[in-house]
Amino acid sequence: MRENILETAALSKKFGDNYAVNHVNMTVQKGDIYGFIGKNGAGKTTFIRLITELMYKNGGDVSLFGSTHPKDIHQARKRIGAVIEGPSLYPNMTAHQNLNYYLLQKGIPDKNRINEVLEFVGLENTGRKKYRNFSMGMKQRLGIGLAILHHPDFLILDEPINGLDPMGIIEIRNIILKLNKTYGTTVFISSHILTELALIANRYGIINNGRLVKELSKEELESESRRYLVLKTLNKEAAVQHLESFLELYQYEVHSDGSIRIFEYIDEPEKISQVMFDAGIIITELKVVEANLEEYFIDLIGGEQK
């Protein structure tokens, strides 16, 4: 069984009478790329600030690397690297100067680490260019470079692809995957873009209005947002009965609008059509709906709000 890197139990933060983080129970295991998904204002950054102790909690517990005692937690946090709400870097310094400054601050003796990091994040050729003149993507990559300067075991990234162009997103994605696959770094990455996190994460937590609505694996996400047929008829009860009786079809859902979502025979809709025709059941709609992660996310948080 893999080591739990992060565990929270009923972790909470209130501002006035309102919960920004509402009794969140979460587990991140060693080797995970954990995608933390929520719309803007859902509580993602507040949660991250709580687990990195940049903000005090109102209730609940945090465990890092199995440690829960405050003194042990403080030591455990030294094994974490984080970029929260943008990197704290000096605008009039070069990439090398910025990393050298923090190398001295952190007491890291290996001067070669600066060049290693710059090469890793693709900034080894920036020369004398000042940070203030970097593109958004370059700034984000240098922020990650700063966060991994001390070889952290756990990397936390708050909206690292926000505002980036497609090439910048690809560069950040490749850095995260390389850290995870090559060095075994556990990564916790927040975003409001589920479709992008689906390309790299193996586990997900979906937050809405401060509540963790759902935790699921990559396989579970793919299953729940998979392709399906939509069948609408003038008699849904009879339609369901015939699907079960004549096709032995049991993977379906009946929705409140009268539609039936069918997860079998997706590439053979004519068989469903034939059964309905033979039974004299009039079909008003029969179509294939492709996998849509955004629709799944909207349905999930929409249902939670209701």
From TrEMBL:
GO molecular function ontology, one term from the record: ATP binding
Keyword terms, alphabetized: ATP-binding, Nucleotide-binding, Transport
Residue stretches in coiled coil: none
UniProt-listed InterPro entries: AAA+_ATPase, ABC_transporter-like_ATP-bd, P-loop_NTPase
Keyword Nucleus set for record: no
Domain of life: Bacteria
Domain ABC transporter: 6-234
Protein family according to the UniProt entry: Belongs to the ABC transporter superfamily.
Protein name: ATP-binding cassette domain-containing protein
Organism expressing this protein natively: Listeria booriae
